[in-house]
Amino acid sequence: MSVDFQQLAVAGVRGLKPYQPGKPIDELARELGLNEADIVKLASNENPLGPSPAIIDAIQQQLVELTRYPDGAGFELKAALCERLGVSASQLTLGNGSSDILDFAVRVFVNQGDNVVVSQHAFSIYGLVTRAVGGEVIEVPARNFGHDLDAMAAAINDRTRIVFVTNPNNPTGTYSTRGELEAFLAAVPEQVLVLLDEAYFEYAEVEDYPCGLDYLSQYPNLLVARTFSKAYGLASLRVGYGVSSPVVADLMNRVRPPFNVDSFALAAATAALRDDAYLAKSIAANRQGMVQLVAAFEQLGLSYIPSVANFVTFKLPDGSDDREVNQQLLQLGVIIRPVANYDMPGYIRVSVGTAAENQTFIDALAKVLA
Ligand SMILES: *Cc1c(COP(=O)(O)O)cnc(C)c1O
């Protein structure tokens, strides 16, 4: 007798579709017989600058400790975060990427049959981790591709445990202003957690963009998630953190696997926080790359969603098929991200690369659309 393991899986997991990551460079190289060096990947909002020497040095110094378990409490990294952010260690939760933080929050607060509120066109991980525990997802229609925070607050019901707010949002690059966020925080019932995902915080340079940490003292139901994967350039190492009230952080740390952040990630993130020059360079390069991409879209007559992050989403001309355009770009060695699965058929998200990578993408796109 064969066992049907599909039926043995918990109900929430049975219906899940795995997260679709950007295609890795070596996978495309294998498929097309291309040189990895000839491929440009602008599909996962990674930092295009490569690692800074300070990070490589920090990792090298850790190599002799390879046989030891990491510091499960992350003392040094937490100390560096406290200094940088002006928070206390009791407010911090370290994650294997900030994806861990989203997952912990759901595991701590969402019972089977509870729900979370998300925006249309929001990061798919929120729904994935919620459904896995038998939670439901209330999706609120976007307004001009951004979060409609008034409608999100109004969608909260008796079974709502978490509202996910992504600022700036991925994949749209839109942001909620200080005034919008403040009105929202005031409107959310105090027993509902607001998970403010600030994965792209460092890139948002607009004047009315709010810093979530400013509201922690006023709102014990606020949890801010940040990552080292984007502006700090450590995506491969998997390290992020949550900042919240100590009570929430304590609960988060109860479900956190004890060694979820490894020694290399801890050392690299600690060094990255002190590497102001790299961060400034990342942000400046992004600003220039965004200008380059937007100018190209205008030149090509393509409409795009103005973005304050390190990627921009544009609309293909009517009648062109996003899967077809994607395939043709892949043939030319350019990996981007169609976002049809984010309820945006006909749109493509491109991460800001180096000037040369951006140009390769622009040339390939012009060729495909010609
Ligand atoms: C990239 C990203 C994250 C962070 O992912 P990590 O797990 O930290 O690599 C979180 N939220 C959003 C919206 C993202 O785009």
How would you sum up this structure in a few lines?
It is built from 14 helices and 13 strands. The protein has about 375 residues and is of the alpha/beta class. The structure holds pyridoxal-5'-phosphate.
**Number of self-contained structural domains:** 2
> What portion of residues belong to β-strands?
5-15%
**Main sheet characteristics:** 7 strands, mixed
Give the strand order, joined by hyphens, for the main sheet: 2-8-7-6-5-3-4
Can you identify the CATH class of the largest domain? Answer: Alpha Beta
Overall pLDDT: 96
CATH topology of the largest domain: Aspartate Aminotransferase, domain 2
Distance between the termini: 58 Å
Keywords:
370 residues; alpha/beta; Aspartate Aminotransferase, domain 1; Aspartate Aminotransferase, domain 2; 14 helices; 13 strands; 15% strand; globular; binds pyridoxal-5'-phosphate; EC 2.6.1.9; Histidinol-phosphate aminotransferase; HisP_aminotrans; amino-acid biosynthesis
Task: Describe the protein in words.
- The chain is an alpha/beta fold.
- The protein folds into two domains: 5-38 and 277-369, Alpha-Beta Complex (Aspartate Aminotransferase, domain 1); 53-274, Type I PLP-dependent aspartate aminotransferase-like (Major domain) (Aspartate Aminotransferase, domain 2, 3-Layer(aba) Sandwich).
- Helices cover 39% and strands 15% of the residues.
- The chain has 14 helices and 13 strands.
- The protein has helices spanning 5-8, 11-14, 25-32, 53-62, 75-85, 98-109, 125-132, 149-154, 178-187, 246-255, 263-273, 276-300, 322-331, 355-369; strands at 40-41, 92-95, 115-119, 136-140, 160-166, 193-197, 222-227, 240-243, 304-305, 311-315, 334-335, 337-338, 347-351.
- The strands form three sheets. A seven-stranded mixed sheet has the order 2-8-7-6-5-3-4. Strands 9-10-13-12 form a four-stranded antiparallel sheet, with helices on one face.
- Strand 12 (337-338) and strand 13 (347-351) form a beta hairpin.
- The protein is globular.
- 44% of the residues are buried.
- Bound molecules: pyridoxal-5'-phosphate (PLP).
- Pyridoxal-5'-phosphate binds at residues 45, 97-99, 123, 166, 170, 197, 199, 227, 229-230, 235, 240.
- Residues 45, 97-99, 123, 166, 170, 197, 199, 227, 229-230, 235, 240 line the site of pyridoxal-5'-phosphate (PLP).
- Belongs to the class-II pyridoxal-phosphate-dependent aminotransferase family. Histidinol-phosphate aminotransferase subfamily.
- It catalyses: L-histidinol phosphate + 2-oxoglutarate = 3-(imidazol-4-yl)-2-oxopropyl phosphate + L-glutamate.
- Its cofactor is pyridoxal 5'-phosphate.
- The modification N6-(pyridoxal phosphate)lysine is found at residue 230.
- Keywords: Amino-acid biosynthesis, Aminotransferase, Histidine biosynthesis, Pyridoxal phosphate, Transferase.
